[in-house]
Specification:
- By secondary structure, the chain is mainly α.
- It has helices spanning 2-30, 34-61, 70-102, 106-129.
- The longest helix is centred in the middle third of the chain and has 33 residues, at 70-102.
Length: 135
């Protein structure tokens, strides 16, 4: 499990790179209104980051637990997407709570909140999304 956790952390860095790169491209080259720059672009970049990290999970981290067919891929993607949306909610709630209770600098609060949401995401993936299934 430790090896998977380390791979999962690397996956997180790759996802952050995809998310940030897409956000930069969209807000620099394509979207310029408030809505497209601050609402639509982050939503698109976040979702593309989720898809990129899912591909890493499916084909690298938990590749021995998947069936490697189209229906399995998309079924697990739906669960993974849902788990990462819950993870985002956890991050926002923990961030707000830490900020309210301890009044830390926002980036410190964010790093702590990312730890909580990351642990949730890992265990959701390890114990629910990427369990060996026979169809």
């Amino acid at each position: 499990m430790l090896r998977n956790f380390i791979k999962f952390a690397i996956r997180g860095v790759a996802g952050a790179i995809v998310d940030t790169s897409v956000l930069w491209i969209l807000t620099t080259l394509f979207f310029h209104s408030y809505f497209t720059k601050y609402i639509l672009s982050p939503a698109i970049s976040y979702e593309l980051g989720i898809v990129a990290t899912y591909i890493i999970c499916y084909f690298w981290i938990w590749n021995n637990k998947v069936n490697k067919d189209k229906s399995d891929f998309f079924r697990r993607l739906i669960y993974y997407n849902f788990a990462l949306i819950i993870s985002l909610v956890i991050k926002v709630l923990v961030l707000a709570a830490i900020n309210e209770i301890f009044n830390f600098y926002i980036l410190i609060s964010n790093l702590i909140a990312l730890c909580f949401s990351g642990i949730f995401s890992f265990f959701a993936s390890e114990k629910y999304i990427f369990i060996k299934r026979e169809y």
